[in-house]
Specification:
With 230 residues, this protein is of the alpha+beta class. The chain contains 4 helices and 10 strands; from the N terminus they run H-H-H-E-E-E-E-E-E-E-E-E-E-H. Keywords: Copper, Electron transport, Magnesium, Membrane, Metal-binding, Mitochondrion, Mitochondrion inner membrane, Respiratory chain, Translocase, Transmembrane, Transmembrane helix, Transport. One of its GO terms (cellular component) is mitochondrial inner membrane.
């Protein structure tokens, strides 16, 4: 999860997030090179008193500064489109979960199991156990198997919400009357935190999301226990 004064992204917990971080670094390097070149040209133009007729009026220079930005845009656009299609790709999910946004909590329905459904509320500060994070911990976590494709159907009951888990590279709007879907694969077991990312009222900051990825055996034990409690 994020920590104070962090400059970069959270550690990736899914293949898509790894791709997004690589693309960010790729685009940032291009921006850095362009900024350096432009700064050098500005300083050179301001400090030098020399002029050159072939620079002030040159068709070759105009061709270069027209083609070069187009090539740079292509270098940025192609990997961006690739990741965009990867994020939309949902093929043979092993588990489907329906996340419903409310004011101001989330509820989850495991559609592959008839009896598993629960509400997920933020744990108040006074009830936190040692090691739990204020404003991020919930009373019921969304448990998923690691290294397995999971589909999340996102909707809302009242106003606009947004189901977002940065470490997974997932952010999907929850719209009343509409069912959006997204998918992720947890690369490793762990606990990953998110928050509602759409302003949804007075307690918008108090409806966190916690995804707990566990090995398949532990997920089967958890689902069996939830079915027995139901």
């Amino acid at each position: 999860m994020a920590h104070p004064s962090q400059l970069g992204f959270q550690d990736a917990a899914s293949p898509v997030m790894e791709e997004l971080i690589h693309f960010h670094d790729h685009a940032l390097m291009i921006v850095l090179l362009i900024s350096t070149l432009v700064l050098y040209i500005i300083i050179a133009m301001v400090t030098t008193k020399l002029t050159n007729m072939y620079i002030l009026d040159s068709q070759e220079v105009e061709i270069i500064w027209t083609i070069l930005p187009a090539a740079i845009l292509i270098l940025i656009a192609l990997p961006s489109l690739r990741i965009l299609y990867l994020m939309d790709e949902i093929s043979s999910p092993h588990l489907t979960i329906k996340a419903i946004g409310h004011q101001w909590y989330w509820s989850y329905e495991y559609t592959d199991y008839k009896e598993i459904a629960f509400d997920s509320y933020m744990v108040p500060t006074q009830d936190l156990s040692p090691g739990q994070f204020r404003l991020l911990e919930v009373d019921h976590r969304m448990v998923v198997p690691s290294e397995a494709p999971v589909r999340v159907l996102v909707t809302a009951e009242d106003v606009l919400h947004s189901w977002a888990v940065p470490a997974m590279g997932v952010k999907m709007d929850a719209v009343p009357g509409r069912l959006n879907q997204t998918a992720f694969v947890a690369s490793r077991p762990g606990v990953f935190y998110g928050q509602c990312s759409e302003i949804c009222g007075a307690n918008h900051s108090f409806m966190p999301i916690v995804v707990e990825a566990v090995p398949l055996k532990y997920f089967q034990d958890w689902s069996t226990l939830m079915l027995e409690d139901a």
